[in-house]
Amino acid sequence: MVSAVGTLVVSYAMDWSLLRLTIVLMDRKPRRWRLGLGAVVGTLPTLWVLLQQNLYAVPWELLILWPLGMLWLAVPRFPWRLWARAYLIFAGVTVLAGGIALVILTWLGQWLPGIPHWLLLGLSVPTVLWGMGLLIPRPRMRQYLGQAQKGEVSVTLNGSTLTLPCLWDSGNQMRDPVLRRPVIVMEISQAIEWLPPEVLAWVTACASGRQDPVPSKWQGRLGTVFYQSIGGTGILPVVALEEAKGQFQGRWYRLQPVALAFTPQSVSSDHSYRALVSPDCIITINQEGVGA
Questions:
Q1: Closest C-alpha to 225, from 193, 258, 197, 192
Q2: What CATH number is associated with residue 177?
Q3: Which of 73, 107, 136 is the last residue of a domain?
Q4: Domain boundary residue, one of 103, 136, 169
Q5: Where are the alpha helices (DSSP H) in 112-247?
Q6: Overall domain count for the chain
C-alpha cells in the first residue's frame, strides 16, 4: 500500500509539473512560489479522497473546474480572454502526462521491477514534463498563440535616454555583424531630437542610400545591418547602445548589450508602438521563466 504522505507528494509533483508546462506553453513567466501554491491547491482533491477513503468522494463538476483555481493562483494576472485556452492546454497536458505514465509503466516497469510503480511515476513523469518545458522553442511561442506582446523600451546613448512603446517581436533575430549584438529596430523619426547631431547626420545619410564616412568619435559603434522581411530586403544603419531596458509583461528588465537600428518607415500601421525588440534581449527572462 502507498502511504498517504507518498500519495500527496506524488500528487504535488504531478500538479507542479502540469502547471509549469501549461504556463510555459502560454508564454508566461512561472514563479516558483506561485507554482508551489497552485500545486498545493491541486493536491486538495487527493487529500479529500484520502480522508474519505473513497475514490469518488470529489464531485466530478468540482474536478472539472479545479484547474482554473490552480491556474489563477499560479498566474494571477492572466488575461480573461486566455482562460479558455489555458484550460484546454492544461487538459491536453494532463492527457499527455497520462500517456507518458502509460509508456513508463509499460516499458520501464519491466526493466525496473524492484521500484514501486507509484515512485517510478512520481519521479519520471514530472521529470519528463519539466524537460519538455525547457526544450520548448519559446522565441516563436507567442506567434503560435496569436498574441502580440507590447511594452516599452528605454535606450541610452551618449548619456541621453529615450523611452518608446515597443512590440516584443521574437521574429526579430537580427544581429550586428561586427559586435554580434541583438538589434532593436526603431523609427528614425522618433530619434531626431535624441541622437547626437553627427550621429543623426550619418544615420540619415545611410538611410537615404549615401555612404558617408563614420565620424571619428563614433568609430566602432556605427555600422549597418542587413534585414529581410515580407516587404523586401535592405540595409539599416545601426549604433551600439550604452544601456537598454525593456518593460515586458508589466515588469522592467535590463537588456543585454544591444545595437539600435533605424528605419525610415513606420514599424506599426496604427502607431501603437515605435520599436521592435526581441525577447531574447532580456537578461533575466530565462532565469525567471518567459519568452521568447
A1: 258
A2: 2.40.70
A3: 136
A4: 136
A5: 117-135, 141-145, 197-207
A6: 2
User: 0.70 exceeded by the pTM?
Assistant: no
Distance of CA 14 to the CA centre of its chain: 22
Per-residue HEC secondary structure of 70-86 comes to HHHHHCCCCCHHHHHHH
Q: Which domain holds residue 187?
A: 145-288
Neighbours of 65 (CB within 10 A): 11
DSSP letter at 255?
B
pLDDT tens profile 129-170: 878 777 765 545 555 555 557 899 999 999 999 999 999 887
Specify the amino acid at residue 179: L
Whether 153 contacts 246, CB under 8 Å: yes
Output b/e per residue, 222-237; b: 16+ Cβ within 10 A.
Answer: bbbbebeeeeeeeebb
**Helix, strand, or coil (residue 163):** strand
